[in-house]
Write a structure and sequence with these properties.
By secondary structure, this protein is an alpha+beta fold. It has 2 domains: 46 residues, no CATH class; 56 residues, no CATH class. 28% of the residues lie in helices and 30% in strands. The protein contains 4 helices and 6 strands, in the order ββββααααββ. The chain has a 6-stranded mixed sheet with strand order 1-2-3-4-5-6, covered by helices on one side. A hairpin with a 3-residue loop joins β1 and β2.
Length: 135
């Protein structure tokens, strides 16, 4: 089923509502999947609309603010795997957000069903160069 939602645009239901889209992420145009979790009836909650609109309104700030936590996560994983003391070409030393951006790619924005969480939530999905299997 395909609907034209006032907020999410033209989306198709195939176990999840989705559409392909292009967004700017850190000064680069990227192709992503916008995914909205809800029932097949296409009646989305106000929380979902508010979450998505908030993301769009704050996108410039948010895309910069998420880089450091991703970098921190990478450094922690690298440490846990022992690659901070033993070299692994798949887990190179990455110390800056600029270096990180060379190794990650935004691939999706996920708007979960409002029933799943109390507050407003949005998920961002990335592919990365160091863990091909899990993205």
């Amino acid at each position: 089923m395909i609907i034209n939602d006032a907020v999410f645009g033209k989306i198709e239901y195939e176990y999840v509502w989705s559409r392909d889209s292009t967004v700017e992420f850190c000064r680069k145009e990227v192709d992503i999947a916008l995914m909205i979790d809800d029932e097949e009836d296409g009646e989305f909650s106000e929380k979902q609309y508010t979450s998505y609109n908030s993301l769009i309104q704050n996108w410039e700030y948010l895309q910069q603010s998420i880089l450091q936590p991703i970098l921190d996560y990478y450094k922690q994983k690298r440490y846990e795997l022992g690659y901070d003391v033993s070299y692994n070409e798949n887990y190179p030393l990455i110390e800056t957000a600029k270096q990180l951006l060379e190794r990650i790619r935004l691939v999706g924005i996920y708007v979960p069903s409002a029933r799943r969480f109390e507050g407003r939530y949005i998920g961002l999905t990335f592919d990365c160069a160091w863990d091909i299997e899990n993205g």
